[in-house]
Amino acid sequence: MITTLTAAEIAAKLRSKEVSAPEVTKAFLDRISTEDAKYGAFLAVDSERAMAQAEDAQKRIEDGTAEPLTGVPVALKDNISTEGIETTCASKILKGYIPPYDATVTAKLKAAGAIIIGKANLDEFAMGSSNENSAYKLAHNPWDLKRTPGGSSGGSTVAVTAELAPLALGSDTGGSIRLPASFCGVVGFKPTYGRCSRYGLVAFASSLDQIGPLARTVEDAALLSNAITGHCNLDSTSLPHGPISLDGLKGGSLKGMRLAFPVEMYGDGTDPEVRKATEKALDDLRSEGAIIEEISIPTIPLGVTTYYIIAPAEASSNLGRFDGVRYGPRSQGQGHIDVVAKTRAEGFGHEVKARIMIGTYALSAGYYDAFYLRAQQVRAAMTQQFNEAFEKYDFVISPTAPVTAFELGALSQDPMQMKLLDYCTIPANMGGFPAISIQAGFAHGLPVGIQLMGPHMGDERVLQAAFAAERVLETQRKRPPIS
Ligand code: GLN
Q1: Best of 406, 422, 437, 451 for a ligand 1 pocket test (most atoms within 8 Å of beta carbon)
Q2: Domains, in order of start, for the chain
Q3: Cα dist from 122 to 63, 71, 78, 155, 160, whole Å
Q4: Nearest C-alpha to atom 10 of ligand 1 is from which residue?
Q5: What confidence tier does 477 reach under pLDDT thresholds 50, 70, 90?
Q6: Atom of ligand 1 lying closest to residue 355 CA
Q7: Banded pLDDT at 474 (limits 50, 70, 90)
Q8: pLDDT at 479
Q9: pLDDT at 385 over 80
């Protein structure tokens, strides 16, 4: 069946003309239409447009101008702008908003001949860890539909896990690609900050946001990373480097690889079963020659608190643009201030409002030094401590998440626990480091992810190491109970 294949396998079959691009796209569209009601992965699917792209892709395959992803479908998180296709960020405030332009990643995928198969569900404006903050619908974990797939890139992750798309893009501000990848047992990669253009990604916390791939194998994640990265003039934080290279991806070895395990990565909330699965994975890597040593990075436990100053501060500023004047629906009211206030009161969900208030407070005169400035100092210290680790070690390794996927609703009354889910992933955003989550094993019958973090611009090496580790952990492509 086409839909069970990886992106690399689909690309090979397209090249050898065993299947055509329209056949591939139709297979996924059909599967979405029959199966997605139970998963909630997609907010919008434009079949006609996707089929037209597939026809074009087929022409390129016929005339020899195809690129690696030509004819391969990709789902995009619905905070990534798509010209002509509604982009809501899973918020009511952007209901009906149709961007007049493509994000750089969208344009790059189109230029590569990839098929935009649909827009994936997420937590409103990417704020959340369970996809439960979507204003439209819940997303369900394919391993157990009662459970969350994680968030905020929940829909993108479900799409690849349930084989509704071979590839998807998510965004990661504090862990939103890696956490759901861990909960669903797939691969999620956050590139070095600045390697992937943020132009057209609806901004949440601009100094932390990064787009990256979700896929079922490291090879697929690397293929998609290659297609979406590279310098972009439209993003002032874009690095002056070319795309993430695929050279040497499969040539790495764990023999002699030096990995640091910060002891602080097992925080108070770590589930003992997750710890057991992690220890087993570390032993498996050791038996292939990896050298894993415990180190201390004392700022790690400060990550979540620091993040919840910096991210809301930036969000409160970024979300100021949603006033009902330029985008989305407008509420009725008396005069400009009243219209804006009502539009925002009715358009934003609870979590988004809470973040705007926290951020505004942290930035206000009198509190700025105590909160924002202090958070920036911790961020700098944390980055420095990780850089010191990268002087002695090739990578930092840790669990991706302290727990496995929990039941929908279980943490709704416990915002603190919800926020602690990003305990292990936030440091990579703070320092802008590349980080990947791959499946490491199982606990409670659910997937457990392991995270590899590399130094700034070490994206290729992180992918190469993950490719080698994926082979050793032997869990790759274990399929969830989907039909
Ligand atoms: N869970 C974190 C939050 O709610 C991270 C979200 C993200 O990475 N987009 O902010």
Answers
A1: 422
A2: 1-483 (3.90.1300.10)
A3: 38, 25, 7, 6, 14
A4: 127
A5: low
A6: 10
A7: confident
A8: 81
A9: yes
- Positive or negative, the CA dihedral 53, 54, 59, 65 is positive
This model's pTM is above 0.85: yes
**Cα 177 to ligand 1 centre (Å):** 9
Instruction: State the pLDDT confidence band at 162, using cuts at 50, 70 and 90.
Output: very high
User: Under a CB-based contact definition with an 8 Å cutoff, are residues 32 and 118 in contact?
Assistant: yes
Query: Which of 20, 81, 129, 152 is labelled catalytic?
Result: 152
Residue nearest to atom 5 of ligand 1 (CA): 174
Residues touching ligand 1 (Cβ under 6 Å) are: 126-129, 152, 171-176, 204, 311, 422
CA atoms within 13 A on the CB side of 39: 32
Does residue 369 surpass a pLDDT of 70? yes
For residues 408 and 396, what is the distance between their CA atoms, to the nearest angstrom?
31
Decide if 353 is catalytic: no
Query: What is the residue-wise DSSP string for 353-372?
Result: HHHHHHHHHHHSTTTTIIII
Q: How much distance in Å is there from the Cα of 437 to the middle of ligand 1?
A: 16
DSSP code per residue over 156-182 = HHHHHHTTS-SEEEEEESSSTTHHHHH
Nearest-angstrom CA–CA distance, 396 and 262: 7
**Among 127, 190, 209, 304, which residue has the most ligand 1 atoms within 8 Å of its CB, making it the best to mutate?**
127
326 has pLDDT over 90:
no
* Residues 120 and 74: beta-carbon distance below 8 Å: no
For range 463-477, the mean pLDDT? 87
Q: How far apart are CA 219 and CA 6, in angstroms?
A: 9
Average pLDDT, the chain: 97
pLDDT single digits (tens) 435-456: 999 999 999 999 999 999 999 9
pLDDT tens digits along 254-273:
999 999 999 999 999 999 99
- Does residue 236 carry a catalytic annotation? no
Peptide bond into 152 cis (omega under 30): yes
Other CB atoms within 10 A of residue 33 CB: 13
Confidence at residue 260, expressed as pLDDT on a 0 to 100 scale: 98
pLDDT digits (tens, 9 = 90+) for 217-247: 999 999 999 999 999 999 999 999 999 999 9
> Letter for the amino acid at 181?
A
20, 77, 153, 197: which is the annotated catalytic residue?
77
Ligand 1 geometric centre to CA of 472 (Å)? 30
